[in-house]
Amino acid sequence: MAKQDRFSPLYEKVDSSGPPPWQNGGTFLPDMRSLRRLLQVLVDSGKIENAQTGGPALAVDVWIASELRRAGIEPDAVWPRAEAPRMAPQALTSAIGKFPFAKNAEKAAIQAKTIAKLLELAGSARSTVVGGQFVKEVDVVIAEHDRGLELAVSTKAMTDSYGKNVTNRWEEASGDLLNLRRRFPLVSFGFAFLVTAPILTSEPKAFERLKDMLRKLTTVVVGAEGSAYDAACLLVADWSSGTVQLSTAAVPDDLAPGLFFGRLLRALFSRSPVDDHAEARKLWLASAPAGVSA
User: Fold this and answer.
1) Which of 80, 110, 120, 135 is the most exposed place for a label (fewest CB within 10 A)?
2) Average pLDDT in the 276-281 region?
3) CA dist list (Å): 261 to 10, 69, 130, 163
4) Which of 75, 80, 49 has the alpha carbon at shortest distance from 239?
């Protein structure tokens, strides 16, 4: 039986059978219903406001990781993995998939148990990355020993004290950017921010500052091209009634999830060897993205 952890109830609600997200012209169409289902799991369990267990940002982590897999990224390459341990070396999981188990059922069972234990010992529950200045836990990761950190997404959620918390989150995001970019200048780096709907009516100025923050964090400065996130997105949710609703109309086009995933993956494709992430590239190119020839 698979080991249960805080991710388990969420991954049980992920539908991996959906179609690829790429639309004609290279537009990424995210599955927003999936995000709503994941947030609803936390609402129903009473854990949506529990920061110690991850709160709403945990649902965003699973959603982003699942969307990257839906885009064709190798399932075990994206952390948190769909199974525990949530972080495990890709070389190890690939080797396990090719392992020649004994034909004898008893021997095969012993081999499977041994391999499962090795995977548990080699893996981890969290994705920690050594940055240029300090060790940082990164929420969604693609990494491998022969190339280091390839993709990283930091997720944040804000459910109250909006005006005060925008400033704090801005400082944190800027520090994370400097820390990871210093060691990994080619990483495809994203920032996803979920905020609850009361900000729209109770603190509209804070909402404007939040949008300004996300735009400034992704603004590339000439001469300092590594000083920005490659993509940022804004998510507005409301679960005050007990049923999760996503306020997509409140999100401007330049901060929409579809554009976020498109920019993040295009940065990954442009900075990695052309024969890496082959299935994801194939799906993307089949959508005839603007300005790209197969």
Assistant:
1) 135
2) 95
3) 21, 12, 25, 27
4) 49
Bridge-based pairing state of the strands 188-196 and 148-158: parallel
Do 127 and 114 have their domain in common? no
Residues above pLDDT 70, as percent of the chain:
97
Which one of 64, 97, 122 terminates a domain? 122
Q: Are 62 and 38 in contact (CB under 8 A)?
A: yes
Residues 110, 161 share a domain: no
Range of the domain at 103: 89-122
pLDDT band at 2 (very low <50, low <70, confident <90, very high): low
Strand duo 22-23 + 245-246: pairing: unpaired
Tell me, yes or no, whether 291 lies in a domain.
no
Same domain membership, residue 180 and residue 58: yes
Encode pLDDT of 51-65 as tens digits. Answer: 777 899 999 999 999
How many separate domains does the chain show? 2
**SS3 for 99?**
coil
Q: Terminus-to-terminus CA distance in the chain, angstroms?
A: 44
